[in-house]
Amino acid sequence: xxxxxxxxxxxxxxxxxxxxxxxxxxxxxxxxxxxxxxxxxxxxxxxxxxxxxxxxxxxxxxxxxxxxxxxxxxxxxxxxxxxxxxxxxxxxxxxxxxxxxxxxxxxxxxxxxxxxxxxxxxxxxxxxxxxxxxxxxxxxxxxxxxxxxxxxxxxxxxxxxxxxxxxxxxxxxxxxxxxxxxxxxxxxxxxxxxxxxxxxxxxxxxxxxxxxxxxxxxxxxxxxxxxxxxxxxxxxxxxxxxxxxxxxxxxxxxxxxxxxxxxxxxxxxxxxxxxxxxxxxxxxx
Length: 285
Ligand SMILES: C[S@@+](CC[C@H](N)C(=O)[O-])C[C@H]1O[C@@H](n2cnc3c(N)ncnc32)[C@H](O)[C@@H]1O
Fold this sequence. Notes:
Elements: H1 3-17, H2 26-39, H3 45-54, H4 59-67, H5 80-96, E1 102-107, H6 114-126, E2 134-141, H7 144-152, E3 154-155, H8 157-161, H9 166-172, E4 173-176, E5 179-182, H10 184-187, E6 191-194, E7 207-212, H11 221-234, E8 235-243, E9 256-260, E10 265-269, H12 273-279
Parallel strand pairs: 1-2, 1-7, 2-6, 7-8
Antiparallel strand pairs: 3-5, 4-5, 8-10, 9-10
The site of S-adenosylmethionine has 24 residues, from loops.
């Protein structure tokens, strides 16, 4: 791949999806774009890139961008955040919402659905009282192809073998061909929709719980900061943000407090001291 072709595509990807392509990733672009070029009837990746360069931003560009997303995920990924959700974060949130009986959850990089479905199963299993609540659970991703898979809720045996405990498999999945499908009662809990983290966030409600895991790693520091600031504006004063195991707000955005738990951590919006007192929030956790 010629340097100017790589440069063109890296700029396109960062501008429209925030994803940074480091130098030396030509092989990755070539490999990911090969099927896109073939499906589009182009003789080579070079021919596809030339076509993209000559045309205004459109569907073909988005298909190429989507091909460069990394959709790696698994059920109950990293385990500890889900234990913390079950044992600490959700019990506290639910207690604080006992009067309004509403809970707004957003999973901001849902990929093929394992993460939001893990949380939906956990909610159903550990907090059956929420059945009488108004629960909004939105799961978004930039990739239409992964969202289509997530909506279907069908998983092959390899995917099922990655992190799904037998108990949840037996309780919340039904046989489906060679694999399994999430039961409708769980599938219907989650509303999947396309949303670009670096674009507008239409109809985003005030949020109690945000999972934005293993996606900030792909962005530059400015993009990370912008996204964290946007979440801050949507997060309720006592809402919680979970990031991936290698991600943090530290040295990026100062408007969050980290709350350390036994084997994981989560973030809360930092507020002026007076505000915290009036909200009855104990920051000393
Ligand atoms: C590595 S997966 C993480 C999935 C899941 N959160 C987890 O931790 O297992 C990253 C996801 O972020 C999505 N993504 C990348 N850039 C995005 C953007 N600008 N807006 C929304 N989603 C994006 C990708 O499509 C991909 O599905």
